[in-house]
Amino acid sequence: MNGQQFNAGFFGGINISQISGDSYQGFNKLGFNAGIFVNQLIDQNFYWQAEIKYGTRGVYEGPSDTNPSLYKSAYHIVELPLSVHYLFDEKIILELGTSPEVLITTVFWDENGIMDKSTYLDNRRFGLSVFAGIGYWFSDRMMAGLRYTNSAIPFRDPEEWNNSQYRGLFHNVISVSLAYRFKHQ
User: Structural domain tally of the chain?
Assistant: First the structure.
């Protein structure tokens, strides 16, 4: 790979997510992710990568035998991930990065359908996440990847800062995706 040339491509996949700091447990919310990337070799096995990514995350708590209520949230977010990748044996990548993000919209549901927007709590419009992942290039153009993303700052402030037990709400997202690379030098 020539250090002066860029590779570019696109990716898409699924997200499973939860929110730390709320009363719901488990990675129960299914969402999606899609975007484009460019990368460039830094050194023999290291390269940087920049992305523009759109995805959904949130919470899902469905009805059960003991509780007929439903709660679901969807946060639609545009991310700008920037990462450093280590390429091992031309096949396996390890990645570490950070991602500024912009909240586009939120939608909340209960057992009666979409909730009235006037009942929504305020969320931060701009956020920051950190992530780590692993990927496998199964051909010179196709890769399968797994990434874990966590909010670096809460997307909703704590209601009471004096309570050390409640630090705010944080997104936790596990993404599985496929990537296609247009150019490979």
Answer: 1
What pLDDT sits at residue 165?
58
> By three-state DSSP, how is residue 114 classified?
strand
DSSP state letter for 69: -
Assigned token pair, 81: 């991930």
| One-letter amino acid of 113 | G
In sequence order, the β-bridge partners of residue 107 are 74
Spatial CA neighbour of 183 closest among 41, 33, 35, 12:
41
% of the chain beyond a pLDDT of 70: 91
Task: Say how many C-beta atoms besides its own lie within 10 A of residue 127's C-beta.
Answer: 21
- Identify the domain containing residue 124 by its residue range: 6-181
Task: Note the pLDDT tens digit of each residue in 39-90.
Answer: 998 988 999 999 999 999 999 988 888 888 888 999 999 999 999 999 999 8
Residue 101 located in a structural domain: yes
